[in-house]
Amino acid sequence: MANTSPILFPKLQRILSEVGENIKLARLRRKLSSEQVAERAGIGRSTLVKIEQGHPGVSMGNYMNVIWVLGLEQDFLLLAKDDELGRKLQDAQLITKERAPKKKN
């Protein structure tokens, strides 16, 4: 089977590209070379370049290894932490038109 990349909507590709750019900037701020980060993450330099470009075909595990090397793994926990839409949908299901049952003495 050929190794193909998933096709993303343009908005999602822009987000992934921005994530890659943020990873690259974090690496540069730490004054680490691409060779150093790739070696520590257990990936090839070409894979790191793809991550920094926001390539959608790179596995999530490789992204996580690079994020860990940069010391940013806790930032990943913020993803979907405050699910505002989900909470609104959940709250909408809680609203009922029935009255609460009366207390029995």
Question: Would you write up a description of this structure?
Answer:
- The protein has helices spanning 10-29, 34-41, 45-53, 60-69, 73-76, 84-94.
- It is mostly helical.
- The termini are far apart.
- The model has no long low-confidence stretch (mean pLDDT 90).
- Residues 23-77 form the HTH cro/C1-type domain.
Briefly summarize what is shown.
The protein has 105 residues and is mostly helical. Helices cover 59% and strands 0% of the residues.
What labels would you give this structure?
105 residues, mainly alpha, elongated
Rounded mean pLDDT is: 90
Oligomer: single chain
Estimated share of beta-strand residues: under 5%
Spans where pLDDT lies below 50 across 5 or more residues: none
Order of H and E elements: HHHHHH
Number of β-strand runs: 0
Straight-line N-to-C gap: 70 Å
User: How would a crystallographer describe the biggest sheet?
Assistant: none
Structural class: mainly alpha
Estimated radius of gyration: 21 Å
Number of helices: 6
CA-based shape:
elongated
What level of helicity do the residues show? 55-70%
Protein name: Helix-turn-helix domain-containing protein
Pfam families: HTH_19
Domain HTH cro/C1-type: 23-77
InterPro entries: Cro/C1-type_HTH, Lambda_DNA-bd_dom_sf
